[in-house]
Amino acid sequence: MSRFFSNKYDALTPYTPGEQPRDNQYIKLNTNESPYMTSELAVKYASEEAKRMRLYSDPECTDLVKKAADYFGIETDEIVFTNGSDEALNFAVMAFCDEKTGAVFPDITYGFYPVICSLNNIDYTEIPLNDDLTLNTEDYYRTGKTVFLANPNAPTGVALPLEEVERIVKENPDTVVVVDEAYVDFGTESAVGLIHEYDNLLVVQTMSKSRSLAGGRLGYAIGNRELIRDLNTLKYSTNPYNVNRMTMAAGIGAFEDDQYMKDNCRKIIETREKTKERLKALGFILTDSKANFLFAKHPMISGGDLYQKLKERNVLVRYFAKPRLMEYTRITIGTEEQMDIYIRETEDILNGVKE
Question: Structural domain of residue 289, as residue ranges?
Answer without folding.
Answer: 21-36+259-354
